């Protein structure tokens, strides 16, 4: 069982978005220095739409696979980057990647996954999934 040490709430009202957070700085911020989110506790989403296992990458780009996560599996998004590589293998041109905690390679590990295959909200014009919220839903682990 995890103890939540950070809480963030994203509110959208009248077209404005504000994020409020409490708690310690995130270790994920170091892995996502210009990223969005920076949670010490992940927001939980699901892998969806991949034709097989979603490739987990060592960096925010293709061709450095370190594992795979099946459709329907939970992923804890710790932060996002919107300047990674595209996914030319699937004909996708977004540059948004999620740094996640997920079960792969026989245990709970960390890596980068292409945001298109995670059930975060649609990306805004800058490439962010604006509802990436620390501590969203329950940790399945």
UniProtKB/TrEMBL annotation:
Annotated signal peptide: 1-27
Keywords: Signal
Protein name as annotated: Secreted protein
Source species of the chain: Actinospica durhamensis
